[in-house]
Amino acid sequence: MGVVAVAVGCVVGLGGCSGGKAAPAGASAAPVVPMVIGKEQAEQVFNRYLSERMASLDRRDAVGLAAVETGELLKESLARVEVARLRSIDVPEFSFGRPEFFVPAERDQQGYPRSFVVLSRQSSNHVNATRDAAVHYFVQDAPGGEWKAAAMSWVNDRPVTPGKNDAMMHRIFDFAARSKEIAAVGRDAAGAVVLSPTAAADREVCGRYARYMTFTAPDGKPESDHFVPGELTSEVVKAFNVLKGDLTDVTKGYAFEVAGGELPVMRLADGKSLVTCSFVRTDLWRGEGATFQYGNGALGDADTLLGGGHKWWRKTAVRRSVTVTFELPAQGPADVAGSNALEARALSAEGTPK
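RESULT FIELD:
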């Protein structure tokens, strides 16, 4: 179990960072713009989340998790706790450090829910730990309400440093981050994160992806007018088309459904939008005159939720929690910057046994 990294960051424009040099006389100061959350409070929300989440996972404490998480992220965490309880194992978890806070101005998020985003790093010596960024989305549903984490994804947001890291895509637990980094997240003159002015239209990528990823193997179509071919788009469809076994004896269908609340859409420095969507993926497997079973690997959580014992099944329906982060240009197909579509955590499972 990792140690929680409580690392206080800096929110530019939310009061500044201590220890900096004073601006020279006559220099113009950045405009003071009200933010949806202040610098110290944003740091406290993030650090409390890290601490309470780790402790709650250790205790398998659903109430503790519900105090700091909401929506699809909470459902996924509760399912992980249930699988750990049934297996009598610990819940693996990362520690995070070096946070960067991206907070909208009040003028850009009038009304509720309100939100802010944190990019942080693994407390790890892994070769790509400086490139991989965890993306946490925090929301507040009503005035005076608790700020809770609603979603988490991973992206590469820094270029390769020769001799220190590499340009290969690799997995971070059940997530995969695209090898090519995203551009920097935009900020305005006051330090507020730049939100996409076309957020509603940008979020339509969620529905397009759900339709793209809904098929019965091996009939998934890797080519799409809406998504560029690549390691987290067309290659994922190809993987589902042959996933885990002989399709002659088992029909394997996959249905993606958009889930959860709307998350803020940030504008990147290259003009693209960063859109994160939550999905429920339902795996519908049916034996064709045969039966099948789940192993101990990536599909082992399904076996656990089906009662364990590696039983044989005639058909099953397994619901899984998927989070995908898209890089969306103003025009043209989107790309996936981070995803756990292939190794999504099971939420629930039911089936007809042999």
